[in-house]
Amino acid sequence: xxxxxxxxxxxxxxxxxxxxxxxxxxxxxxxxxxxxxxxxxxxxxxxxxxxxxxxxxxxxxxxxxxxxxxxxxxxxxxxxxxxxxxxxxxxxxxxxxxxxxxxxxxxxxxxxxxxxxxxxxxxxxxxxxxxxxxxxxxxxxxxxxxxxxxxxxxxxxxxxxxxxxxxxxxxxxxxxxxxxxxxxxxxxx
Length: 189
Known about the structure:
Blueprint: H1 8-15, E1 19-28, E2 56-63, E3 69-74, H2 79-92, E4 98-102, H3 112-120, E5 125-129, H4 140-151, H5 160-176, H6 179-186
Parallel strand pairs: 1-4, 4-5
Antiparallel strand pairs: 1-2, 2-3
Helix pairs in contact: 4-6
């Protein structure tokens, strides 16, 4: 693509006053993620762990314009929970057509009811799939990395409620200060 050229999907979105979103899902264990950190020589940092995989499953989407962040906690990733997230996005961007770019995850396969809903709402939502195995094309991947850095790296949570509260706090921070994730999205404009 030539510099300054606007991708076709962005032209479509601009023509109908729509919005382009990138979507992805991530899982966060109760155990924090270990990450390198500073420590005095001979004093290795220690992060407690329960060794349990009580997982938070989260759908997320970020807009190309303004890095607006949307998320949804779910028990599992499947077609039904993905459809609930699509409905949440359509409601949030009421009056605008949403051009949603996503990967090829199995949870994106909708059942017949989901396909019918998608067809009925084709004036409000259009789905586009990234090429297989191409996370480098999805700005949500570095957003998840930033989430881990701010909420779970080298941290110990005693309960899932503590972990989920830390994740929600991070997501609220993204909404208040979109500049924290805007750089991840800027290269796709």
